[in-house]
Design a protein that fits this description.
The chain is mostly beta strands and 827 residues long. The protein is built from 11 helices and 48 strands.
Length: 827
């Protein structure tokens, strides 16, 4: 209720801001249209807090999702579906999970089960369908280092090379106007390279330059029209942008409490009453007409007028068209959140209780509420980057910067150069998140994806002798055993769409259709449920910088003692198996009624925590199998029956009478003596095994056999017999019948709880099973009231330094971040 009220207040504030000075109606109309676009097309920004930034291949990635909307970063009440995807080092799609959002918050996990067994840099990606309308920069991307047997990533060959780009302030070099020019030098490993060089025009030296931070720097020069400028660095030449004969240059300088803004033009007769306006995340906070004297106009704007973040300055000419833009960075003390966190115990022994006591205060010391997530993990294995990306850097800076930002946390540090270097970053890597040219176009013309409140089923109805599209054909859709029937008709192309269907896990649906004439001689073909989403490919750099480049400041921690690689890998494998067993048990439902049908695990009446702790540690490998026919070309040499019979746990036998026995050994806990038959799905539609066997290998894109309770949880109790999932290359080969089919709609990921024992409370302290968790505690979402909150957690059996990372956002839309360490000792 509070967050919804805040959103309403924010929208009400979108009235036109008073403009200083006499301004043309064209300029006022441009600002009015700009504000209207931003009000109608509120943008969502996304952040995922993961429990760690590095993993071993068998680990589960736990994440907490934050989705905010609009200029004030209020929790989004728009989208209710968040897609989270995992990509392998080659950029190949691994898996997608759908997370339910409730007022901008959600949680879930994703595994490497379907990923190739290789070390490297993987990517986790998150987006809403609505965010896709505004470009790739509104999707969240985070690269994760993934190890297998040792704490070392593959080392691709790094070729010699240097890329240097030059960026005139406000976009252009203009004849006769002194201009600041930013530059960025990037080495072949993708990281900034420190350089120095000389600027020439022909053989004439114009000036020199030298980088000052991460390969970035700037210099000033007055260009001349008709001259071509280039930079020379160690014998290499790099061309500067062409010089325009006429134009305008916008210069912004940080002067303490003010932004000093100057425009200079060599066409003052065209730019008689230039209008300068400035916005942050689409909300206009300043607008002023600049009086020109000899082509130059100046003004001072108080920085307190703007919230924290990227400030977009734009100059409009007399006909209301943008002629120059400049991005600057602002840190407003009003947005300051003081995280007052205290460890209950700064040093503990094995299985001892500690925790964090937390209160949030604003810049004036008043307590404020918020929502947060907390991760506690072993900090002795990998050095922690104190300047890594956080919710604060993402929402205030990174979402409006082109390309990779090295150590973004530095720009929010107390370093004396932090703000100056942030401005330099925007001079070189700033991007046009707000395309000014599109403001004058139809603001709805670029909307391709709607706001999703659930999932969709779509398809096409054909019929008649030649299989023509059936327009105005009635379609009857129902879901669940007693679900209500929805009735709709197809469009001119015979297509239909049912959208915004709320589904937890998965649900069976039925579709019946007939022609407009009433004939049932029609065929129903379903589309891939998620086929409307973007193509699943990514480009992930596997180049790793040298330790010298990665090391930024003496604040960067170092591993105090050498780590035994083999011991860490074994610990990670055991900890991962333990965690998966616990999740496996969760997915079984009524624990007291579960009986053992294999040697995996048993559950007693004392409850899941104690039994898990005593039985844990058995192998859960081989619970799922995935074949990608694009990567495993040899599969096309076999029949589908041959492929299936080679999958562990699958039984496929033709009887002497021509029948067929198809079973999947789930090797899991069973509630009933007789498991249901396996679920067989072809392109999202439930079918029979004979339909699958009728396919030819060239038609198939992938085959998956699901056997673990975690994977089968989406199918509910019916999934306890296992599942066979087949996808064809065109995604449209589906079961067709005369006016009827049934299928299963995949919905939100069912929640799984992170295993975090409370020793002496619900788990005996003297259990013999070694507790070797790497992530000690994961709390994906909790509320921090004005009075604060206390979160307890317990240590494991592995001594070392452990780090807690706290991220969150206040109810007024201000992100915050906090980290600390404590010691776990043998004594």
């Amino acid at each position: 209720m509070v967050k919804s009220l805040l959103v309403s207040i924010a929208l009400a504030l979108l009235a036109v801001i008073p403009v200083k000075g006499q301004v043309s109606q064209n300029s006022l109309e441009f600002i009015r249209q700009f504000k209207s676009v931003e009000q109608d097309l509120v943008r969502e920004r996304i952040y995922l807090h993961t429990d760690r930034d590095w993993y071993f291949h068998g680990d589960r990635i736990w994440f907490s999702a934050y989705v905010v909307a609009g200029p004030y970063n209020f929790a989004s009440v728009l989208s209710e579906v968040l897609y989270v995807e995992l990509y392998d080092p080659e950029g190949g799609f691994v898996e997608r999970v759908s997370i339910q959002l409730v007022e901008g918050r959600g949680e879930g996990s994703i595994t490497f089960d379907k990923a190739p067994d290789q070390a490297g840099r993987y990517r986790i990606k998150a987006y809403t369908a609505w965010a896709l309308n505004f470009g790739d920069f509104y999707t969240f991307n985070k690269d994760l280092n993934v190890f297998i047997e040792e704490l070392q990533l593959p080392s691709p060959e790094i070729t010699e090379g240097l890329d240097v780009q030059f960026f005139p302030e406000s976009g252009h070099l203009v004849d006769g106007i002194a201009t600041r020019i930013g530059f960025k030098a990037v080495a072949s490993d993708g990281y900034g390279a420190e350089v120095s060089g000389t600027i020439y025009s022909g053989n004439r030296e114009v000036g020199k330059f030298q980088s000052i931070h991460r390969g970035m720097g700037f210099f000033e020069m007055t260009p001349g029209y008709g001259e071509e400028y280039y930079a020379e660095i160690n014998g290499q030449r790099f061309q500067l942008p062409q010089v325009q004969e006429m134009g305008t240059v916008l210069h912004v300088e940080d002067e303490g409490d003010f932004f000093s803004v100057q425009i200079e033009t060599n066409t003052p007769n065209v730019l008689e009453t230039p209008l300068l306006f400035a916005h942050v995340r689409g909300e206009v906070f300043a607008a002023e007409v600049l009086n020109l004297e000899e082509g130059i106009g100046k003004t001072l704007i108080a920085k307190t007028q703007f919230p924290s973040g990227v400030v977009h300055f734009t100059v409009l000419n007399d006909v209301g068209l943008p002629v120059a833009e400049r991005l600057s960075f602002n840190r407003n003390q009003v947005d300051k959140v003081m995280v007052n966190a205290n460890l209950i115990e700064e040093q503990i022994t094995a299985r001892e209780r500690t925790g964090i006591q937390l209160v949030l205060n604003d810049g004036q010391g008043s307590a404020i509420p918020g929502t947060a997530s907390l991760s506690v993990f072993d900090d002795s294995i990998q050095p922690y980057n104190v300047f890594a990306s956080t919710i604060k850097t993402q929402l205030f800076l990174e979402s409006e910067v082109r390309g990779h930002v090295e150590h973004p946390g530095f720009y929010f540090s107390d370093d004396v150069n932090a703000e100056a270097y942030a401005d330099l970053l925007l001079l070189t890597q700033g991007w046009k998140a707000y395309d000014m040219s599109s403001v004058l176009e139809d603001k709805l013309s670029r909307i391709e994806y709607g706001i999703e409140k659930g999932f969709r089923v779509s398809g096409k109805i054909t019929g008649g002798l030649f299989g023509r599209s059936q327009s105005d054909a009635p379609v009857f859709f129902s879901m669940g055993e007693n679900g209500a029937v929805s009735i709709l008709t197809t469009d001119e192309e015979g297509e239909f769409l049912i959208s915004d269907i709320p589904v937890q896990g998965s649900e069976r649906f039925e579709i019946k259709a007939n022609a407009e004439s009433g004939s049932q001689n029609v065929s129903i073909r379903l589309n891939d449920q998620f086929g409307y989403l973007p193509a699943n490919t990514e480009v992930i750099s596997q180049l790793v910088s040298t330790p010298e480049k990665a090391q930024m400041h003496e604040q960067q921690p170092e591993i105090q003692e050498p780590v035994l690689q083999e011991a860490i890998a074994e610990r990670a494998e055991a900890a991962s198996a333990d965690a998966e067993l616990f999740i496996d048990v969760q997915m079984q439902g009524e624990l007291e009624e579960i009986t053992v049908t294999s040697d995996r695990i048993g559950v007693s009446e004392v409850g899941v925590q104690e039994d898990f702790a005593t039985q844990i540690g058995r192998n859960v490998s081989g619970m799922g199998t995935h074949f990608d026919f694009d990567e495993q070309k040899e599969l096309e040499n076999y029949s589908i029956q041959d492929v299936l019979t080679r999958i562990p746990g699958v039984t496929l036998i033709r009887t002497p009478l021509g029948g067929l026995t198809f079973e999947i050994n789930t090797n899991t806990i069973s509630i009933n003596a007789d498991d249901p038959p396996p679920i067989i799905m072809l392109n999202g539609v439930q079918t029979e095994i004979n339909t699958i066997l009728s396919l030819i290998p060239e038609e198939i894109k992938s085959i998956s056999v699901l056997r673990s309770a975690v994977d089968l949880a989406i199918f509910g109790a019916e999934g306890s017999g296992g599942a066979l999932i087949v996808t064809t290359r065109d995604g449209t080969h589906s079961v067709e019948s005369k006016g009827y089919l049934n299928g299963i709609l995949l919905g939100y990921q069912l929640p799984a709880t992170f295993y975090s024992p409370r020793y002496g409370v619900d788990v005996p302290t003297d259990l013999e099973k070694r507790d070797n968790r790497i992530t000690l505690h994961w709390e994906p979402e909790f509320r921090v009231s004005a009075r604060g909150v206390e979160l307890p957690f317990w240590g494991n059996d592995v001594p070392g330094t452990y780090r807690l990372v706290l991220e969150g956002i206040t109810e007024t839309g201000t992100p915050f971040f906090y980290t600390d360490t404590f010691e776990l000792t043998n004594q």
